[in-house]
Amino acid sequence: MATLFVVRESAPEERRVAATPASVRKLVASGLTVLVERGAGAHAHFEDDDYLDAGAEVVDADAVGGADVVARVTPPTTDEVAALAPGTVVLSFIAPHRHLEVVSALAERRITTLAMELVPRISRAQSIDALSSQANIAGYRAVITAAYELDKYFPLFMTAAGTIRPATIVVLGAGVAGLQAVATARRIGAVVKVSDIRAAAKEEVASLGASFIDVPQDEDLTGEGGYAKEVDEDFLTRQRRILTENLEGAHAAITTAAIPGRPAPRLMTTEMVEAMPAGSVVIDLAAADGGNCELTSTDGMVEHGGVRVFPGHNLPSTMPAEASTLYANNITSFLGLLAPEGELTLDLEDEVVAGSLLTHDGEIVHERTADLVRGDGS
User: Fold this and answer.
1) Is the same domain home to 308 and 325?
2) CATH number, domain at 152?
3) Hey, which residues does 282 pair with through a beta bridge?
4) Residue 133 annotated in active site
5) Quick one: which of 80, 43, 40 has its CA closest to 56?
6) Which range has the worst mean pLDDT, 38-47, 231-240, 346-355?
7) Residues 147 and 122 in one domain
8) Whether the predicted pLDDT of 17 surpasses 90
9) 164 and 76 within one domain
């Protein structure tokens, strides 16, 4: 039977864990031996005793060398890669375009890496889609953060002392995170406007009670996997002009646009931020990939002209128990495909496995990442 090792995350501010006691019960029942690194779930309020009660063994970090599969949330360091046995299967977010040295180390160590952000967005992989599960949390948390930081009510208030108009929120990107942000902002009474370049987004936005910021275009800009295509500078110029007009009256902007494996598209310039009223806030969920906003910094909040810009790349980790529960379910579903009876079987012809495969048998098999490592990509 295969052995799974669940890592205690070491990345700064990371509070999630790749398995919960509930998911461990399912994994053990499927025939897997589960090893959980001591203290792995502490930040998410899962104690070692909870894992023991679920059927796991609680072990020290050096036990990772005996694992067949390693589950984690954040990319390993090169030192952590060196501690793995050749042939180990790693399930994790990797962000390969930002961690090329780690990718090279994984390949050189002959690790089979299944990157959670590369899971194809097809029907049979929905339960494995960790990008979506974590984006849902990020979209919700972005609105809560904006409401906390903004010195204004979100909803309409009509009182004997006067009427307070509702806040206006602009959401850039109507993917999973964007639509959750729209739904959350609407639930607490904000007026919401949404920008997206995909034709299908308009109907989704309307169904949630928000208005759509239309940028005239000649073609549907929906790309592979439902993500937006890259656009030319002419379209970006028109989009920025129209967005600026809408941002002039906005109290908060939430940016969510991402292209997997590439830098985040730049949607908000400094001039666009300057168009927002003093006291407004921007929450940039794409901060880790360079940000949708020109002023975003992963080091923390940036204030410019009375507008505060917050990086939102780590928002799922601020809700560690629920984020871990959803992510652990994604990992459990993936392991149900890889080891349905407790025996690890890597079917490289399976479209979910093939689509998620980053490194295998000493090679970087994901074409775009291989190009980046060779210096052929951009």
Assistant:
1) no
2) 3.40.50.720
3) 253, 309
4) no
5) 40
6) 231-240
7) no
8) yes
9) no
- Say yes or no: 145 and 45 in one domain: no
Give the residue-averaged pLDDT of 75-90. 98
Listed residue (4, 1, 114) closest to 67, CA to CA: 4
Strand order through the sheet with 363-364: 57-59, 33-37, 3-6, 69-71, 89-92, 112-115, 357-360, 363-364
Q: Which of 25, 110, 121, 266 is catalytic?
A: 121
Report whether pLDDT(273) > 80: yes
**Residue from 15, 92, 129, 280 carrying the catalytic annotation:** 129
Given 51, 140, 227, 327, the catalytic residue: 227
Distances (CA, A) of 249 to 127, 158, 170: 39, 21, 9
Same domain? For 328 and 243 the reply is no
129-168 confidence digits (pLDDT tens): 999 999 999 999 999 999 999 999 999 999 899 999 999 9
Task: Report the pLDDT averaged over residues 246-275.
Answer: 92
Give yes or no: residues 111 and 55 share one domain: yes
Locate 25 and state its tokens. 């019960």
User: What beta strand segments (E) does 104-183 contain?
Assistant: 112-115, 157-159, 162-164, 168-172
At 230, the pLDDT band (50, 70, 90 cuts) reads low
CA distances from 275 to 82, 227, 247, 252, 360 (A): 49, 28, 7, 12, 49
**Which SS3 state, helix, strand or coil, does residue 215 take?**
coil
Count of domains for the chain? 2
Q: In this model, does residue 27 exceed pLDDT 60?
A: yes
Please tell me which residue in 10, 126, 207, 217 is annotated as part of the active site. Answer: 126
- At CA 146, angle to CA 243 and CA 190, rounded to 5? 70
Distance in angstroms (rounded) separating the CA atoms of residues 37 and 35: 7
129 is annotated as an active-site residue:
yes
pLDDT, residue 170, reads 97
Percent of the chain scored above 70 by pLDDT?
A: 95
Write down the mean pLDDT value for the chain: 93
Query: What is the pLDDT at residue 198?
Result: 82
Active site annotation includes 333: no
Known catalytic residue at 121: yes
Catalytic-labelled residue, pool 132, 186, 238, 266: 132
The tokens of 16 are what?
A: 């999630």
Per the structure, the complete domain to which residue 57 belongs is given by 3-129+320-374
Decide: 16 and 81 in contact? Cβ < 8 Å: no
Which tokens belong to 201?
A: 């987004």
